[in-house]
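Thread: iron/sulfur cluster complex, take 2
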Amino acid sequence: MSDDPIRRQVGRPRFWERFALEDLSSAEWEALCDGCGKCCLNKLEDEDTGEIALTRVACRLFDDGSCRCAQYEIRKQFVPECVVLTPEKLRETAYWLPQTCAYRLLYEGRPLYPWHPLLTGDPETVHEAGVSARDLTVPEFEVDEEDWEDHIIEEPT
Ligand code: SF4
Ligand code: SF4
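Output below.
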């Protein structure tokens, strides 16, 4: 089992099943992230239909091998548009978050998937389940924005 870059041993027992998102501590909130990395992939939104298409073109700070943000703590200095999720923000962002994103699932009243590291105790299980962005991406500095549509993918779920 590899070291988990996200602190999971925090908070109240099975807090994600027992408390509203608004009532979680900041440590519990951070522990909810499954580490899939899919929110770091660029999306294309159809202006007319609102339909979202996922691409494999990743944010410039995304590290494909570790499936992590390379500068998570100070990321806003480099990527000001990076969205910092909060319970309030979910109202306007949930629709474009990945289908398996823990924040989206709980916001929509659905349970976590059994591969979630909070349930398995192992950060690798999100990758073993084939639902993460690891080894899937190309960096955005290698692809012109007008060519992103050539890199549209189905979300791995
Ligand atoms: S999509 Fe959700 S669960 Fe996956 S890395 Fe992003 S915030 Fe975490
Ligand atoms: S700045 Fe970091 S967390 Fe934000 S989208 Fe880019 S890689 Fe992901």
